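User: My advisor asked me to double-check a structure prediction for EAL domain-containing protein before group meeting. I don't want to rely on an old file, so could you generate it fresh from this sequence?
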Amino acid sequence: VRLLSQLRVDAERSAFTFEAQPKVDREGKVTGAELLVRWTTREFGAISPVEFIPLAEQSGAIELLGRQALLCAGRLAQDIAAKGLRLHIAVNLSPRQLHNMAFERMALHACERFGIKPAQLELELTESALADASVLPLLRRLRNHGFTLALDDFGTGYSSLSYLLKQPVQKVKIDRAFVRDITSDNAASEVIKGTLQICRGLGLKTVAEGVETWAQFEMLRDLGVDEFQGYLFARPMPIDQWLAQLAGEG
Ligand code: G
Ligand code: G
Ligand code: MN
Ligand code: NA
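Assistant: Sure, here is a fresh prediction for EAL domain-containing protein from the sequence you gave:
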Protein backbone atom coordinates (compact mmCIF):
# COMPACT_ATOMS: atom_id res chain seq x y z
CA VAL A 1 0.00 0.00 0.00
CA ARG A 2 2.87 2.34 0.83
CA LEU A 3 4.46 1.36 -2.47
CA LEU A 4 1.24 2.09 -4.33
CA SER A 5 0.83 5.55 -2.85
CA GLN A 6 4.51 6.32 -3.49
CA LEU A 7 3.97 5.22 -7.08
CA ARG A 8 1.08 7.66 -7.46
CA VAL A 9 3.09 10.52 -6.00
CA ASP A 10 6.14 9.76 -8.14
CA ALA A 11 4.03 9.37 -11.28
CA GLU A 12 2.62 12.85 -10.68
CA ARG A 13 6.16 14.14 -10.31
CA SER A 14 7.38 12.36 -13.46
CA ALA A 15 9.98 10.69 -11.26
CA PHE A 16 10.64 7.74 -13.55
CA THR A 17 13.85 7.45 -15.52
CA PHE A 18 14.48 5.48 -18.68
CA GLU A 19 17.37 3.37 -19.87
CA ALA A 20 18.11 2.58 -23.49
CA GLN A 21 18.98 -0.85 -24.82
CA PRO A 22 20.30 -0.77 -28.40
CA LYS A 23 19.19 -3.08 -31.19
CA VAL A 24 21.49 -4.02 -34.06
CA ASP A 25 21.04 -5.24 -37.61
CA ARG A 26 22.52 -8.34 -39.25
CA GLU A 27 25.90 -6.59 -39.60
CA GLY A 28 25.89 -5.55 -35.96
CA LYS A 29 25.17 -1.90 -36.76
CA VAL A 30 22.89 -0.05 -34.35
CA THR A 31 19.33 0.41 -35.66
CA GLY A 32 17.76 2.02 -32.61
CA ALA A 33 17.01 1.39 -28.97
CA GLU A 34 14.22 0.33 -26.66
CA LEU A 35 13.43 2.53 -23.67
CA LEU A 36 13.03 0.66 -20.40
CA VAL A 37 11.54 2.44 -17.42
CA ARG A 38 13.37 2.57 -14.07
CA TRP A 39 11.96 3.57 -10.72
CA THR A 40 13.95 4.16 -7.55
CA THR A 41 12.35 5.11 -4.26
CA ARG A 42 14.07 6.40 -1.15
CA GLU A 43 12.24 3.91 1.00
CA PHE A 44 12.38 0.74 -1.10
CA GLY A 45 15.32 1.35 -3.44
CA ALA A 46 15.17 0.31 -7.09
CA ILE A 47 12.01 -1.58 -7.99
CA SER A 48 11.74 -3.74 -11.09
CA PRO A 49 9.17 -2.78 -13.71
CA VAL A 50 7.99 -6.37 -13.54
CA GLU A 51 6.73 -5.47 -10.07
CA PHE A 52 5.53 -1.91 -10.48
CA ILE A 53 4.04 -1.93 -13.99
CA PRO A 54 1.13 -4.11 -12.82
CA LEU A 55 0.62 -1.72 -9.88
CA ALA A 56 0.74 1.24 -12.24
CA GLU A 57 -1.83 -0.44 -14.46
CA GLN A 58 -4.20 -1.02 -11.56
CA SER A 59 -3.83 2.44 -10.10
CA GLY A 60 -3.97 4.38 -13.35
CA ALA A 61 -0.44 5.73 -12.82
CA ILE A 62 0.40 4.00 -16.11
CA GLU A 63 -1.15 6.92 -18.01
CA LEU A 64 1.40 9.31 -16.52
CA LEU A 65 4.24 6.82 -16.93
CA GLY A 66 3.25 6.29 -20.55
CA ARG A 67 3.16 10.01 -21.19
CA GLN A 68 6.61 10.40 -19.67
CA ALA A 69 7.91 7.52 -21.82
CA LEU A 70 6.56 9.13 -25.02
CA LEU A 71 8.11 12.48 -24.18
CA CYS A 72 11.41 10.83 -23.33
CA ALA A 73 11.32 8.94 -26.63
CA GLY A 74 10.47 12.11 -28.55
CA ARG A 75 13.31 14.04 -26.98
CA LEU A 76 15.78 11.23 -27.61
CA ALA A 77 14.64 10.85 -31.22
CA GLN A 78 15.19 14.58 -31.67
CA ASP A 79 18.71 14.39 -30.17
CA ILE A 80 19.53 11.52 -32.47
CA ALA A 81 18.19 13.20 -35.58
CA ALA A 82 20.26 16.27 -34.64
CA LYS A 83 23.37 14.05 -34.82
CA GLY A 84 22.36 13.14 -38.36
CA LEU A 85 21.56 9.56 -37.38
CA ARG A 86 18.53 7.62 -38.55
CA LEU A 87 17.62 5.38 -35.65
CA HIS A 88 14.28 4.42 -34.15
CA ILE A 89 13.30 4.68 -30.50
CA ALA A 90 10.94 2.04 -29.13
CA VAL A 91 8.62 2.40 -26.15
CA ASN A 92 6.66 -0.30 -24.38
CA LEU A 93 2.92 0.13 -24.06
CA SER A 94 0.67 -1.51 -21.52
CA PRO A 95 -2.74 -2.84 -22.56
CA ARG A 96 -4.47 -0.20 -20.52
CA GLN A 97 -2.81 2.66 -22.39
CA LEU A 98 -4.56 1.58 -25.56
CA HIS A 99 -7.88 2.15 -23.85
CA ASN A 100 -7.04 5.70 -22.99
CA MET A 101 -8.82 8.00 -25.43
CA ALA A 102 -5.99 10.51 -25.12
CA PHE A 103 -3.20 8.12 -26.12
CA GLU A 104 -3.26 8.89 -29.83
CA ARG A 105 -3.21 12.63 -29.17
CA MET A 106 -0.39 12.21 -26.64
CA ALA A 107 1.72 10.26 -29.12
CA LEU A 108 1.21 12.82 -31.88
CA HIS A 109 1.88 15.64 -29.45
CA ALA A 110 5.23 14.09 -28.49
CA CYS A 111 6.20 14.06 -32.17
CA GLU A 112 5.11 17.65 -32.79
CA ARG A 113 6.79 18.95 -29.71
CA PHE A 114 10.16 17.49 -30.65
CA GLY A 115 9.83 17.96 -34.40
CA ILE A 116 10.13 14.29 -35.24
CA LYS A 117 8.15 11.99 -37.52
CA PRO A 118 6.03 9.20 -36.04
CA ALA A 119 8.12 6.77 -38.10
CA GLN A 120 11.04 7.47 -35.76
CA LEU A 121 9.05 5.94 -32.92
CA GLU A 122 8.22 2.31 -32.49
CA LEU A 123 5.41 1.18 -30.21
CA GLU A 124 5.89 -2.24 -28.59
CA LEU A 125 2.64 -4.00 -27.80
CA THR A 126 2.20 -7.28 -26.01
CA GLU A 127 -0.08 -10.02 -27.22
CA SER A 128 -2.38 -9.35 -24.29
CA ALA A 129 -2.75 -5.73 -25.41
CA LEU A 130 -3.90 -6.96 -28.81
CA ALA A 131 -6.19 -9.68 -27.51
CA ASP A 132 -9.02 -7.18 -27.28
CA ALA A 133 -10.33 -6.55 -30.79
CA SER A 134 -11.67 -3.15 -29.76
CA VAL A 135 -8.14 -1.70 -29.95
CA LEU A 136 -7.84 -2.50 -33.67
CA PRO A 137 -9.19 0.83 -34.97
CA LEU A 138 -6.73 2.73 -32.78
CA LEU A 139 -3.84 0.56 -33.95
CA ARG A 140 -4.80 1.18 -37.58
CA ARG A 141 -4.89 4.93 -36.97
CA LEU A 142 -1.51 4.84 -35.23
CA ARG A 143 -0.08 2.96 -38.13
CA ASN A 144 -1.60 5.40 -40.62
CA HIS A 145 0.06 8.23 -38.72
CA GLY A 146 3.34 6.44 -39.45
CA PHE A 147 4.19 4.89 -36.08
CA THR A 148 5.83 1.48 -36.32
CA LEU A 149 3.96 -1.17 -34.35
CA ALA A 150 5.88 -4.12 -32.95
CA LEU A 151 4.47 -7.22 -31.31
CA ASP A 152 6.54 -7.79 -28.16
CA ASP A 153 7.28 -11.07 -26.35
CA PHE A 154 6.00 -13.09 -29.29
CA GLY A 155 5.29 -16.69 -28.44
CA THR A 156 4.56 -16.24 -24.76
CA GLY A 157 0.86 -15.51 -25.18
CA TYR A 158 -1.78 -17.37 -27.04
CA SER A 159 -1.48 -15.90 -30.50
CA SER A 160 -2.43 -18.16 -33.31
CA LEU A 161 -1.49 -17.65 -36.90
CA SER A 162 -4.92 -16.35 -37.86
CA TYR A 163 -4.73 -13.91 -35.00
CA LEU A 164 -1.33 -12.65 -36.11
CA LEU A 165 -2.71 -12.14 -39.61
CA LYS A 166 -5.27 -9.66 -38.34
CA GLN A 167 -2.83 -7.45 -36.46
CA PRO A 168 -1.67 -4.22 -38.05
CA VAL A 169 1.88 -4.74 -36.75
CA GLN A 170 5.01 -4.42 -38.88
CA LYS A 171 7.48 -6.14 -36.59
CA VAL A 172 7.53 -9.20 -34.38
CA LYS A 173 9.87 -9.52 -31.40
CA ILE A 174 10.62 -13.16 -30.70
CA ASP A 175 10.60 -13.72 -26.95
CA ARG A 176 13.90 -14.35 -25.25
CA ALA A 177 12.67 -17.68 -23.87
CA PHE A 178 12.95 -19.14 -27.40
CA VAL A 179 16.25 -17.42 -28.06
CA ARG A 180 17.68 -18.80 -24.83
CA ASP A 181 16.91 -22.37 -25.85
CA ILE A 182 17.64 -22.13 -29.55
CA THR A 183 21.06 -23.78 -29.39
CA SER A 184 20.00 -26.61 -27.06
CA ASP A 185 16.36 -27.33 -27.69
CA ASN A 186 15.11 -28.50 -31.04
CA ALA A 187 11.55 -27.45 -30.26
CA ALA A 188 12.63 -23.86 -29.58
CA SER A 189 14.50 -23.62 -32.85
CA GLU A 190 11.56 -25.12 -34.74
CA VAL A 191 9.22 -22.53 -33.19
CA ILE A 192 11.59 -19.78 -34.28
CA LYS A 193 11.90 -21.22 -37.78
CA GLY A 194 8.14 -21.43 -38.13
CA THR A 195 7.67 -17.92 -36.81
CA LEU A 196 10.24 -16.54 -39.22
CA GLN A 197 8.63 -18.27 -42.15
CA ILE A 198 5.22 -16.84 -41.29
CA CYS A 199 6.68 -13.39 -40.76
CA ARG A 200 8.46 -13.48 -44.09
CA GLY A 201 5.24 -14.56 -45.77
CA LEU A 202 3.39 -11.65 -44.20
CA GLY A 203 6.13 -9.12 -44.86
CA LEU A 204 6.83 -8.60 -41.17
CA LYS A 205 10.28 -7.69 -39.85
CA THR A 206 11.64 -9.80 -37.02
CA VAL A 207 13.66 -8.98 -33.91
CA ALA A 208 15.26 -11.52 -31.60
CA GLU A 209 15.32 -10.50 -27.93
CA GLY A 210 17.68 -11.65 -25.22
CA VAL A 211 20.59 -12.59 -27.48
CA GLU A 212 23.42 -13.41 -25.09
CA THR A 213 25.89 -15.52 -27.07
CA TRP A 214 27.61 -15.53 -30.45
CA ALA A 215 26.21 -18.98 -31.12
CA GLN A 216 22.66 -17.66 -30.70
CA PHE A 217 23.39 -14.62 -32.86
CA GLU A 218 24.88 -16.66 -35.69
CA MET A 219 22.10 -19.18 -35.65
CA LEU A 220 19.40 -16.51 -35.66
CA ARG A 221 21.15 -14.59 -38.40
CA ASP A 222 21.43 -17.71 -40.53
CA LEU A 223 17.70 -18.24 -40.04
CA GLY A 224 17.06 -14.73 -41.39
CA VAL A 225 16.24 -12.60 -38.32
CA ASP A 226 16.45 -8.88 -39.17
CA GLU A 227 17.34 -7.26 -35.84
CA PHE A 228 18.92 -8.36 -32.58
CA GLN A 229 18.80 -7.14 -29.00
CA GLY A 230 20.51 -8.54 -25.94
CA TYR A 231 23.42 -8.54 -23.55
CA LEU A 232 25.78 -9.79 -26.28
CA PHE A 233 25.53 -6.32 -27.84
CA ALA A 234 24.67 -4.12 -24.87
CA ARG A 235 22.78 -4.06 -21.61
CA PRO A 236 20.19 -1.39 -20.95
CA MET A 237 22.15 1.77 -20.05
CA PRO A 238 21.48 5.38 -19.09
CA ILE A 239 20.39 7.41 -22.11
CA ASP A 240 23.34 9.81 -21.90
CA GLN A 241 25.72 6.89 -21.99
CA TRP A 242 24.08 5.56 -25.14
CA LEU A 243 24.25 8.99 -26.79
CA ALA A 244 27.94 9.25 -25.89
CA GLN A 245 28.57 5.82 -27.44
CA LEU A 246 26.81 6.87 -30.62
CA ALA A 247 28.87 10.03 -30.80
CA GLY A 248 31.99 7.89 -30.51
CA GLU A 249 30.87 5.63 -33.34
CA GLY A 250 29.56 8.36 -35.59
O1 G B 1 14.30 -3.87 -18.34
P1 G B 1 13.49 -4.94 -17.81
O2 G B 1 13.67 -5.79 -16.65
O3 G B 1 13.63 -4.09 -16.68
O4 G B 1 11.90 -4.69 -18.12
C1 G B 1 10.98 -5.56 -17.57
C2 G B 1 9.62 -5.46 -18.24
O5 G B 1 9.03 -4.18 -18.04
C3 G B 1 9.66 -5.68 -19.73
O6 G B 1 8.78 -6.74 -20.02
C4 G B 1 9.14 -4.42 -20.34
O7 G B 1 8.24 -4.70 -21.41
C5 G B 1 8.42 -3.72 -19.21
N1 G B 1 8.64 -2.28 -19.36
C6 G B 1 9.83 -1.64 -19.36
N2 G B 1 9.66 -0.31 -19.56
C7 G B 1 8.33 -0.12 -19.72
C8 G B 1 7.53 1.04 -20.00
O8 G B 1 8.00 2.17 -20.15
N3 G B 1 6.19 0.85 -20.08
C9 G B 1 5.61 -0.37 -19.94
N4 G B 1 4.30 -0.46 -20.03
N5 G B 1 6.34 -1.49 -19.70
C10 G B 1 7.68 -1.37 -19.60
O1 G C 1 9.81 -5.41 -23.17
P1 G C 1 10.50 -6.70 -22.89
O2 G C 1 9.69 -7.72 -22.20
O3 G C 1 11.07 -7.24 -24.12
O4 G C 1 11.67 -6.26 -21.92
C1 G C 1 12.98 -6.46 -22.18
C2 G C 1 13.57 -7.09 -20.95
O5 G C 1 14.59 -7.99 -21.31
C3 G C 1 14.19 -6.09 -20.01
O6 G C 1 13.95 -6.56 -18.73
C4 G C 1 15.66 -6.21 -20.33
O7 G C 1 16.47 -5.79 -19.25
C5 G C 1 15.76 -7.70 -20.58
N1 G C 1 16.89 -8.13 -21.41
C6 G C 1 17.41 -7.48 -22.46
N2 G C 1 18.42 -8.19 -23.03
C7 G C 1 18.52 -9.32 -22.31
C8 G C 1 19.37 -10.47 -22.41
O8 G C 1 20.24 -10.59 -23.28
N3 G C 1 19.17 -11.44 -21.49
C9 G C 1 18.21 -11.36 -20.53
N4 G C 1 18.11 -12.37 -19.68
N5 G C 1 17.40 -10.31 -20.41
C10 G C 1 17.53 -9.29 -21.29
MN1 MN D 1 9.74 -4.59 -25.09
NA1 NA E 1 10.05 -9.11 -24.42
